């Protein structure tokens, strides 16, 4: 299953009230949203009509989150669903997750693209191929090691897989506090080392199996319209 087809079904299944996307490019994934949406990209070129109510920010995600100050992306509501597909480098993806999670709730979900590179060339930090995942696949290893409270689901979508992160905790500051240490440990010069289970996709579940998980029903039932108290 192509990742856009999966995301379309995931939106319908999860029924988020709010949606934030980092890296909107031509708008193909943002157009799947059916709710209040925010798209962030310093150089987007929309070729797809966005029907949901939305705001677009032509800036880097770092600048966007810095610009919020004491505000929140969706007023009193948390980010129910986020899709992170920005700069394909590990440290950028990690920082995006840290920033997004601060505005989430335990019932929120974050999805990452490009978690299953198909070869070492595609996973290089220095891009030299048309299809490029970069080294964002390492993010899963960090979350497994430092955030065992999170629920992680790798999905075998085409072309390069997704990672779904749930059971979020907006007050958990471990990743932010150890950011420099993590980057020093995980950012390595090319060629990147990719574990065999990533290349063979044995760590991933099939798209239909992922969509049938009871986790998403639990999240929908857990979601409320409570204020985002941490930022109120």
Please provide a written account of the structure.
By secondary structure, the protein is an alpha/beta fold. It has one domain (3-231): Vaccinia Virus protein VP39 (Rossmann fold). The protein has helices at 3-14, 61-68, 90-101, 139-146, 174-177, 179-186, 196-199, 207-211, 215-222; strands at residues 18-22, 36-40, 54-57, 81-84, 109-113, 151-155, 162-166. Strand 4, helix 3 and strand 5 form a beta-alpha-beta unit. It starts with a helix and ends in a 10-residue tail after the last helix.
Query: What's the CATH class, please?
Result: Alpha Beta
As an assembly, this protein is: single chain
SSE order, one letter for each helix or strand: HEEEHEHEHEEHHHHH
Rg (CA only): 17 Å
Average pLDDT confidence is 95
Q: So, the CATH homologous superfamily?
A: Vaccinia Virus protein VP39
Number of domains: 1
Query: What would you call the shape?
Result: globular
Strand neighbour order, sheet with most strands: 3-2-1-4-5-7-6
Class from helix and strand fractions: alpha/beta
- Give the low-confidence spans: 226-232
